[in-house]
């Protein structure tokens, strides 16, 4: 015990082949200098990102070749006994670290403060991302293709198989000498490139600090803080103390040898480029302590790239987001369900994080819309989980090699001592996280804030009627020409008051939306005032025929039934047909076979009569209910309706207000519905004018701008220019960005 606490650790005993130039001092200086540069100059230094990326790309150039040669040389040099021993020990250590990491992640939500439910704005994602091809990811059918595409697991498997075959070959000295020389050359090449790493760290940090704003992470305050606390605990407590409890290496030794890599991983957010460096650092610590044998370097050269292909604790930290998402929507699962979800997520993390997170959200019946928040948070979280991943690889390799070489140092008293440190440290972490995150839940915004606060600009004088005026009931305006509209100085527009995002009332009681903005632009071009008259979708032909309003503009779908009774302009938009349902029921709604097995299926809709006929034919057990407005569906008691047939564009906007619902877009049908403006069939003069007017608005991109603002949520994303010292504090430069409207 006493000897272990007084190590003979000294870097001069053996210089690593790859060393971060200047040690952590230059990298740390680059990190701090980049931070201050970004804060001082703000968005003016955003261009530096390309310089940081260039350095990272240079480092990546040696990674896969180094991995290939290191594995071929390392595995090929092993005996059969050594190979079996190494892989069995690696598996034991890997499972141990998984269990410890999952336990910490599952217990950390206990420190989440009590909170009021909140919401967020989700972009309308219409394209379904392709699922990862696990065959290509893991099966090296074409090793050269795997190398070119960067399929690391497939490359490792190929090299492992090749290396195992080499073990039994007798005359392999020439090949082994070539691979050993290649590893040395690649190590020197990496060593030359890492000399400029402080420059890359400086550039990447300056660009991030200069362009990143805290406002866009307002919904993620509790998660981001908890995530940082988790990663710091794993990096500076769990992993190093677990290593110290099992091996001769002390906390100070492992943190000293890993310091440069941790800073680099945090600054770049990239763990792949550090594999050669981490490998050499692990070799160095064994030689520095005099624990290296003839096989140590070979064993480390094999273990490091093999360990990289498995989910590390850095990857496992994304499970915390899933648990946060459940807390965020007030659907905290029981510990047993959270555990099963985490274990299932562990296996999906063998592939892609982008697949694992939505999969786990679905298992916990959490709104899939929250995945958008995960993508936003990745800008920050990737840096912290890269730091965890770097130390995880070091600890995994060091414990594995000490097991293989029978150098473990395990005693009862030693185990209890470090167990007490870990338990005490984790309790302190829970208390600290609760203390820090509690103040942030008090300022959460209400569910409807983002959509309800959207506004229009450049309005013409308007009047909004709550019901049809008596004057219009006479039918005196049943036929309206452009000249008559200009003469009376009034354009009358039919609208639906609850058709988000096309026409609805915002928090200030103002009538806003996509079609309302176009109506104002139309009135402005005509040089007239505007009157908004409420319409009834089920009585459109009658109301247009009697002249209750000149034009109906409210997300109106063109259907075969409607074109027989009224005239339509050229399509304004092509909307995507979608189904809205409670998020945990979307898996059933998206499976035609499961739908057919339902004894009763109640589908609500408002404006898609053509598709209703198809539903009745495809699903005889379905009952289609026509709604008065969409709010009727979302406010209904659970179980009243099974699904809502709506456009994806409108469906996503409504789920902002009701995040417990999700949207499913049928990918096989790709059904689109044209949306246009309706008129009385006899108003040919106005119809001709509107078609030409819409062509102009399409050409000058006004319609595209309104689509971005109202339907894709651009109007809910207020992003002021990034604060900077040079602009906002010293006033040396002006704000060249366009002012907010």
From TrEMBL:
<protein>
    <submittedName>
        <fullName>Cation:dicarboxylase symporter family transporter</fullName>
    </submittedName>
</protein>
<feature type="transmembrane region" description="Helical">
    <location>
        <begin position="384"/>
        <end position="404"/>
    </location>
</feature>
<comment type="similarity">
    <text>Belongs to the bacterial solute-binding protein 3 family.</text>
</comment>
<keyword id="KW-0732">Signal</keyword>
<dbReference type="Pfam" id="PF00375">
    <property type="entry name" value="SDF"/>
</dbReference>
<feature type="transmembrane region" description="Helical">
    <location>
        <begin position="47"/>
        <end position="72"/>
    </location>
</feature>
<keyword id="KW-0813">Transport</keyword>
<keyword id="KW-0472">Membrane</keyword>
<dbReference type="InterPro" id="IPR036458">
    <property type="entry name" value="Na:dicarbo_symporter_sf"/>
</dbReference>
<feature type="transmembrane region" description="Helical">
    <location>
        <begin position="20"/>
        <end position="41"/>
    </location>
</feature>
<dbReference type="InterPro" id="IPR001638">
    <property type="entry name" value="Solute-binding_3/MltF_N"/>
</dbReference>
<feature type="transmembrane region" description="Helical">
    <location>
        <begin position="341"/>
        <end position="364"/>
    </location>
</feature>
<feature type="transmembrane region" description="Helical">
    <location>
        <begin position="92"/>
        <end position="112"/>
    </location>
</feature>
<feature type="transmembrane region" description="Helical">
    <location>
        <begin position="261"/>
        <end position="279"/>
    </location>
</feature>
<feature type="transmembrane region" description="Helical">
    <location>
        <begin position="190"/>
        <end position="212"/>
    </location>
</feature>
<feature type="transmembrane region" description="Helical">
    <location>
        <begin position="224"/>
        <end position="249"/>
    </location>
</feature>
<feature type="transmembrane region" description="Helical">
    <location>
        <begin position="299"/>
        <end position="329"/>
    </location>
</feature>
<feature type="transmembrane region" description="Helical">
    <location>
        <begin position="416"/>
        <end position="436"/>
    </location>
</feature>
<feature type="transmembrane region" description="Helical">
    <location>
        <begin position="150"/>
        <end position="169"/>
    </location>
</feature>
<keyword id="KW-1133">Transmembrane helix</keyword>
<feature type="domain" description="Solute-binding protein family 3/N-terminal">
    <location>
        <begin position="490"/>
        <end position="714"/>
    </location>
</feature>
<dbReference type="InterPro" id="IPR001991">
    <property type="entry name" value="Na-dicarboxylate_symporter"/>
</dbReference>
<keyword id="KW-0812">Transmembrane</keyword>
<dbReference type="Pfam" id="PF00497">
    <property type="entry name" value="SBP_bac_3"/>
</dbReference>
């Amino acid at each position: 015990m006493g000897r272990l606490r007084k190590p003979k650790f000294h870097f001069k005993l053996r210089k690593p082949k790859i060393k971060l130039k200047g040690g952590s001092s230059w990298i740390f200086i680059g990190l701090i200098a980049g931070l201050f540069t970004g804060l001082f100059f703000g968005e003016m230094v955003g261009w530096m990102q390309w310089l940081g990326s260039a350095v990272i790309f240079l480092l990546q150039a040696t990674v896969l070749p180094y991995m290939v040669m290191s594995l071929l040389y390392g595995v090929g040099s092993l005996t059969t006994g050594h190979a079996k021993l190494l892989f069995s020990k690696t598996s034991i250590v890997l499972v141990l670290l998984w269990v410890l990491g999952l336990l910490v992640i599952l217990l950390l939500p206990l420190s989440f403060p009590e909170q009021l439910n909140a919401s967020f704005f989700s972009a309308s994602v219409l394209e379904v991302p392709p699922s990862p091809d696990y065959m290509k990811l893991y099966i090296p059918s074409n090793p050269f293709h795997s190398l070119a595409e960067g399929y690391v697991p497939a490359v490792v498997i190929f090299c492992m198989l090749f290396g195992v075959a080499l073990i039994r070959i007798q005359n392999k000295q020439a090949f082994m000498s070539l691979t050993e020389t290649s590893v040395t050359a690649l190590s020197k090449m990496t060593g030359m490139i890492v000399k400029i790493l402080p420059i890359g760290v400086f550039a990447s940090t300056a660009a991030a600090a200069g362009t990143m704003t805290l406002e866009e992470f307002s919904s993620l305050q509790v998660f981001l803080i908890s995530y940082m606390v988790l990663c710091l605990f794993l990096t500076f407590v769990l992993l190093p103390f677990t290593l110290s409890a099992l091996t001769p290496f002390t906390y100070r030794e492992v943190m000293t040898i890993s310091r440069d890599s941790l800073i680099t991983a945090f600054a770049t957010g990239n763990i792949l480029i550090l594999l050669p460096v981490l490998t050499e650092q692990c070799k160095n610590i064994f030689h520095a302590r005099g624990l290296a044998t003839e096989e140590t370097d070979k064993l480390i050269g094999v273990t490091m790239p093999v360990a990289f292909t498995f989910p590390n604790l850095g990857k496992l930290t994304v499970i915390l987001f899933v648990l946060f998402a459940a807390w965020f929507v007030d659907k905290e699962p029981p510990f047993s369900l959270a555990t099963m979800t985490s274990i299932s997520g562990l296996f999906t993390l063998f592939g892609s994080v982008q697949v694992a997170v939505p999969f786990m959200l679905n298992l916990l019946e959490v709104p899939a819309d929250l995945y958008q928040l995960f993508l936003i948070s990745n800008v920050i979280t990737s840096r912290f989980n890269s730091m965890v991943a770097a130390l995880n690889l070091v600890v995994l390799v060091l414990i594995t090699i000490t097991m293989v070489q029978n150098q473990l140092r395990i005693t009862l008293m030693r185990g209890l001592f470090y167990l007490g440190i870990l338990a005490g440290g984790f309790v302190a972490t829970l208390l600290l996280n609760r203390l820090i995150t509690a103040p942030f839940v008090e300022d959460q915004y209400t569910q409807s804030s983002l959509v309800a606060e959207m506004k229009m600009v450049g309005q013409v004088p308007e009047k909004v009627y709550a019901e049809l005026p008596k004057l219009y009931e006479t039918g005196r305006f049943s036929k309206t020409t452009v000249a008559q509209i200009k003469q009376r100085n009034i354009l009358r527009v039919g609208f639906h008051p609850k058709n988000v995002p096309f026409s609805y009332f915002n928090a200030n009681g103002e009538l806003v939306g996509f079609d309302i903005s176009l109506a104002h632009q139309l009135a402005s071009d005509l040089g007239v005032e505007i009157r908004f008259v409420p319409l009834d979708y089920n009585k459109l032909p009658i109301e247009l025929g009697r002249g209750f309003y000149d034009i109906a503009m409210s997300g109106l779908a063109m259907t075969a039934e409607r074109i027989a009774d009224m005239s339509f302009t050229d399509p304004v938009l092509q909307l995507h047909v979608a189904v809205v349902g409670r998020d945990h029921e979307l898996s059933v709604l998206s499976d035609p076979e499961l739908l057919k097995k339902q004894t009763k299926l109640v589908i609500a809709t408002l404006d898609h009569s053509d598709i209703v006929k198809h539903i009745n034919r495809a699903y005889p057990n379905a009952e289609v209910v026509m709604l008065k407005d969409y709010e009727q569906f979302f406010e209904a008691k659970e179980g009243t309706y099974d699904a809502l047939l709506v456009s994806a564009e409108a469906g996503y906007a409504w789920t902002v207000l009701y995040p417990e619902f999700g949207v499913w877009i049928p990918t096989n049908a790709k059904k689109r519905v044209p949306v246009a403006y309706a008129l009385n069939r006899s108003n040919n003069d106005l119809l001709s004018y509107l078609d030409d007017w819409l062509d102009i608005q399409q050409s000058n991109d006004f319609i595209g701008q309104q689509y971005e603002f109202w339907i894709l949520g651009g109007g809910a994303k207020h992003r002021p220019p990034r604060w900077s010292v040079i602009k906002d504090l010293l006033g040396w430069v002006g704000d060249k960005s366009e002012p907010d409207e």
